[in-house]
Each structure stands twice: as C-alpha cells, then as structure tokens.
C-alpha cells in the first residue's frame, strides 16, 4: 500500500509544519528539562509499599478462591505484569495489572481469518478430563463463556474480602480484563486478566518477531522463545477468539537508561489524554502502543553507547520521531507478531492518528508544554 505524506498544521494556528520524515532530526527539543520531569515521576517508597500491600491482600484472596477444587479455574498461578512490576510506572502507584495463568496441555490452535494474533482454541482428548470442557461450543473453546464465568467468580468473591472496599467496574468494550476499583484504604485500579499458558512451540505467526538479535543477542532470543506464551480470551463476533500474548521479558539490565525514555513517552501520552479527556480521538491509544514503538527503537539502536543518560534529550527525540513516523504511515508492527499492525485502519481511525500526530508535533516543536513547568 502506498502512503502519502501530507503537510500538517499546528494545533495553535495556520502555520504549516513539516511532517516527521523517515530521518531523525539533528537536534534535540529545547526549552524543557527532562531530568526534572523524570524526578517528578518518581514514586515514593512509602506509597509503593502501602499500595502493594493492599493489592497483594486482595489478589492473594482471589487466588485462594480460584485454586479451590470446586473452581473451573483451579490450578491457576499468579503472574504480576504491567508497568509497576517492570519499574516503568509513572506518577503514582494507583494502577496495577495482574494475570492469573492456567497451564493447559494438548491444545490445537486455528488462526482466526489470517489475523496473525487471534486464534480459535481446541482441546485435544485428555484421559484425565479438562475442567475447561464446559466452556466448549462444539469443538471450540468459547472465550466469552470463560470471561463471563471468571468475572462472575471475581464479583462474588470480592464481597468476602474484609477491611477493603472494592467495586467491580463496568466491562470495557474489547478488553479481557476484570477491573476492580479498591476504594479504601486508598483508591487503586486493578486489572485482572485470565490467560491460558502454553509451553508448546510459539505459533508460526511469531517466527520472525522479537527482533532482538543485534540488541540482546541470538541466544537471549532463542531462550525467550523457549518460554511459555499466553492465550488471552478476547471478545470476537463469534465469541470464541483468543489473542496470543507474550510477556515482555526482553528487558534486562542493559535497559536501565532506556527506561527513562519509555517513562517520558508514557507520560507524554498520558498528559495528552488528560488534556483532551473530553474528546474521543485518543481513546484507543494506550501505553502498549508507546511501549511497542519503544522496543523497536531499542532493536534499531542496540548499543548501550546510543543510550547514554547525558544524551537523554536526543534519545527521547529519537523515540518521539519514530512514534510520529508510525502514526504517519499508519503502521506499528506488533513486536512479537510481525504480521499484525497495531495501527491498521480497522483498529484506529486515520483521523485519530492524525490528531495525535498533530498534538505530538506541537509538543515537540514547542518544548513539550504538556509536561508543565520543569
């Protein structure tokens, strides 16, 4: 598909802006202090400890319920994921992601209409039986039935958690998460996701994904591909579909300076969504988009010498330029599944991508006023 580059207009007036080209700009953005911004994003140790204690108490209670012998999801393990556990959480420890994983053996995957990332799941015959059999529709495991039962169990069980006020949030369209709002002793949002863990070979669609050979090395990539992958139940028209999910384990000690850029990118999107919270253009953009683009930059710039803290402004500029390029070309390749475009027109409308592109261009060209006075 040919993509046409267009001239954009600034959000503050008729001045024409040069569209972000495929080459990086020579100079970093001026007039702002990235180190001061990062300092403002640091979490206080006392707040972290308090929030983690509250969340762990709730999650441990739910896990005991899921592991009981009467539960359809017995045998689940707890996998804490998300920005807090990856040390890239910003502003406040008020959002947590928790994944309950259920190991499954003897399954067969059938790709959902050449989507690369979505699959029908079939259970192969198991002499010991399978507690998930009750969720079958014909031969296909129903994602919608699994989600409904999982949500029902969580809804019933939070009533039994003492000394903590918890509310079940309304289902988010297209999201596999059961979202809890802990109201006291402090307000915290917890997204709980059920995932099926498979230790078999990764699906064929991931073969050329995880492009870290020049960054972390061939051996690291090979070892990571020996790790389990996860199937997250997602609502599809048929109600059966599962999405392949890979926990981002490609971070290691080499990324300590890189993470500062990721925090700034996440904060940029967060502040823009806050600025335009009464509009709908940014609703479908999330930190996962920023993180995916960031990992592609890490693969393109694999040397630690390219990520020195003294060059923070330029490194951040490179990340911004790459993300703008993804918006402009309407293409953001899934890091693990190269045939899956996170910015395809059927997932995010062109007008919404153009809106975000204009806002980020404006911020970049004006020293990122959305970050505040730093």
TrEMBL record:
UniProt xrefs under InterPro entries: Mab-21-like_nuc_Trfase (IPR046903), Mab-21_HhH/H2TH-like (IPR046906), MAB21L/cGLR (IPR024810)
UniProt-listed Gene3D superfamilies: 1.10.1410.40, 3.30.460.90
Domain Mab-21-like HhH/H2TH-like, chain residue ranges per copy: 258-361
Domain of life: Eukaryota
Residue span of region Disordered: 1-29
Domain Mab-21-like nucleotidyltransferase: start-end pairs: 84-244
Homology family: Belongs to the mab-21 family.
Protein name: Cyclic GMP-AMP synthase
Source organism of this protein record: Echinops telfairi
Classification lineage: Eukaryota, Metazoa, Chordata, Craniata, Vertebrata
């Amino acid at each position: 598909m040919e993509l046409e580059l267009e001239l954009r207009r600034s959000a503050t007036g008729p001045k024409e802006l040069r569209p972000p080209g495929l080459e990086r700009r020579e100079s970093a953005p001026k007039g702002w202090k990235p180190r001061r911004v990062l300092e403002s994003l640091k979490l206080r140790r006392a707040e972290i400890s308090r929030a983690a204690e509250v969340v762990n108490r709730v999650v441990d209670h739910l896990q005991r319920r899921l592991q009981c012998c009467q539960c359809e999801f017995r045998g689940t393990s707890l996998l804490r994921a998300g920005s807090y556990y990856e040390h890239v959480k910003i502003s406040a420890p008020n959002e947590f992601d928790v994944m309950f994983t259920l190991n499954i053996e003897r399954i067969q995957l059938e790709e959902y209409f050449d989507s690369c990332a979505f699959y029908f799941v079939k259970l192969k015959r198991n002499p010991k039986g399978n507690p998930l059999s009750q969720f079958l529709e014909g031969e296909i495991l129903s994602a919608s039935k699994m989600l409904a039962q999982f949500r029902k169990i969580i809804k019933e069980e939070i009533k039994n958690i003492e000394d903590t006020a918890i509310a079940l949030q309304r289902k988010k369209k297209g999201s596999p998460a059961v979202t809890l709002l802990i109201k006291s002793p402090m307000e915290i949002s917890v997204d709980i996701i059920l995932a099926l863990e498979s230790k078999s070979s990764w699906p064929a669609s991931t073969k050329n994904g995880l492009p870290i050979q020049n960054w972390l090395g061939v051996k690291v990539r090979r070892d990571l591909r020996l790790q389990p992958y996860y199937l997250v139940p997602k609502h599809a028209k048929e109600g059966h579909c599962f999405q392949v999910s890979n926990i981002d384990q490609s971070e290691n000690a080499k990324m300590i300076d890189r993470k500062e850029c990721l925090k700034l990118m996440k904060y940029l999107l967060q502040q823009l969504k806050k600025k335009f919270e009464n509009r709908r253009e940014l609703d479908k953009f999330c930190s996962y988009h920023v993180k995916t683009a960031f990992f592609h930059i890490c693969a393109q710039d694999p040397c630690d010498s390219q990520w020195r803290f003294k060059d923070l402004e330029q490194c951040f500029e490179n990340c911004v330029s790459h993300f703008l390029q993804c918006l402009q070309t309407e293409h953001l390749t899934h890091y693990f599944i190269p045939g899956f475009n996170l910015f395809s027109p059927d997932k995010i409308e062109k007008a919404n991508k153009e809106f975000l592109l204009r806002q980020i261009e404006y911020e970049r060209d004006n020293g990122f006023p959305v970050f505040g006075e730093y």
